Amino acid sequence: MLCDIKVGLSCNNACVHCIMEPVKKAQQRSGNGLDADTASVKGLIASATERGFSHITLTGGEVTVRPDFSELVLFALAQGLTVVIQTNGRQLARPSRRAFLKQVTDPDRVQFVIALHGPEEAIHDAVTRRPGSFRQTIRGIESLREDGFRVCGKLVISRINLSGIVATLRLLKCLDVDEGVVAFPHAEDFPSQIFHQVVPRYDAVAAVIQAILAADPATLPLAISYETIPYCVVRDVRFWRSSLDLVFLQERMRGSQTLIEMLMTGDTIDWSTARGQIKTKPAACGDCLLDPLCEGPWLEYVTHFGDEEFQPVTDRVLVNQFIEAI
């Protein structure tokens, strides 16, 4: 089981693809606060332990801007949990913000997923809409790696950074990051104009993935995975292996559960169920040999672009090669 705790909505970036922005605006319109208090977050962390979770994810918003950030991480560690921190990494460029990590005796129990959206300042800062964010994020990654902490780089694809995805992965490799995640944007509730400014078509994404597959593996992170890019987009066993979502399969086959705790709204989301409601499977998927492994695209993608491009994988020879490879 996985527990994702969203501690608030405050953030020092303003990313063009941010799915939490509509939630943040709704909170502001209602006059409610953007962030949960320390006691509430600690209560949920303790509850996660009691419910049998071994790992939690702390995210927001941006968890590192909270004054109690170090307190929350150390509290979770004291509960015996492994803590995954989803962050833009900017605050971690500051030595004072990282100082508490010297108290962590087992670096493997604190893992960082850091959003890096471009290979250079012009692209990354255009995505975050915060000048100087690229330099701070890079320094945050460098500092964590110097201190021996595991970092996973996460890239959310948009029309802004599409041409720089391969170069961004190469930059992660140069920063001694061994894992990269390439995610398709979730643009639910985006106004149509913003949606089309942000969300690329899958054929453009396919060209990027093919460029990744064609690149020298020694120049890229050791492990690259993909989120919400259907298997039929790129018909290559290497891409399929990197897209295999074991958490999704465990939820379906074992009945395990992923919870998202939205502390600022008081909602608990059963992600194991919700993920199937906000994605869609076009009718043609029923004929696809990889249908049981694939969740399909985000619902809003099909709403805006239709589903004609999603054609079933029927090549049994290729699928057998995939089965043998995994």
Amount of helix:
25-40%
Structural class: alpha/beta
Total of domains: 1
CATH topology: TIM Barrel
Round the Cα radius of gyration to an integer and report it: 20 Å
The major pleated sheet works out as:
9 strands, mixed
State the end-to-end CA separation.
23 Å
What is the overall number of helices? 14
Which CATH architecture is right?
Answer: Alpha-Beta Barrel
Tell me the name of the CATH homologous superfamily. Answer: Aldolase class I
Shape: globular
H/E element string?
EHHEHEHEHHEHEHHEHHEEHHH
Question: What is the typical, i.e. mean, pLDDT?
Answer: 90
- How do the strands line up in the largest sheet? 7-6-5-4-3-2-1-8-9
| Beta content | 5-15%
User: Residue ranges: pLDDT <50 for 5 or more in a row?
Assistant: none
- What top-tier CATH class fits best? Alpha Beta
User: Could you tell me the number of beta strands?
Assistant: 9
Report what the structure shows.
The protein has 326 residues and is of the alpha/beta class. It has a single domain (2-278), classed as Aldolase class I (TIM Barrel, Alpha-Beta Barrel), CATH 3.20.20.70. It has helices at 21-30, 38-50, 69-78, 95-98, 121-128, 133-146, 165-174, 192-198, 202-214, 237-243, 246-254, 271-277, 299-305, 316-325, and strands at residues 2-6, 55-59, 82-87, 110-115, 150-156, 179-183, 223-227, 258-262, 267-270. The chain has a nine-stranded mixed sheet. α4 links the parallel β3 (82-87) and β4. α10 crosses α14 (316-325). The mean pLDDT is 90.
Main attributes of the structure:
single chain; 326 residues; alpha/beta; TIM Barrel; 9-stranded mixed beta sheet; 14 helices; 9 strands
